[in-house]
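step: validate -> pass
step: tokenize input -> pass
step: predict -> running
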Amino acid sequence: MKTFKARGLLAVIILSAALAGCGVQDKPGNQPGSTAAPTVTPSPEPTAALNEREAIIYLTDTELAETIEKSVKLQYETDTDLVKAAIAELQKDPAENVLALWQPIELTSVELTDGLVVLDIHLPDEARLGAPGEMLVIETLKKTLFQFDFVQGIQLLVDGAEVETLMGHVELEYPMVREQE
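step: predict -> pass
step: emit ->
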């Protein structure tokens, strides 16, 4: 009886070793004389090269008395991206003693068609200013965007609608157009 159990155990061990060996042989890299198939990795989609342009962003002093110029480098692919990058710079936290009046203003959408930039914004309560502040918000936007030759006009919408005034003090033009020199 002991011999039968020993033979049975030996048979199971041999069978297990044979099955394990067969599984290893199925791998192409483990067979003698075979070469592993090269792994094909998909090539990344070509990305458009980003353009870089130096531009002036217009901010204001803390007294809301005058605009202050700040030189920045903008990266973009299309003209619409350039407009978005310029507005993003208008919204960045500036240096000491300088205010970014566009910082609390939420940009909903930007479209550029035939030289007309259509900006849809949302004005939270903390973005609302008095008459001098409102004039500077509009002035900094116009000065910043009209430096780009392709921008001929700016249509400013608040929550998707044309409004007579941005913050209740200064009447808006529809569209605001580049001043002829």
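step: describe -> Residues 137 and 169 are 12 Å apart (CA to CA).
step: cleanup -> pass
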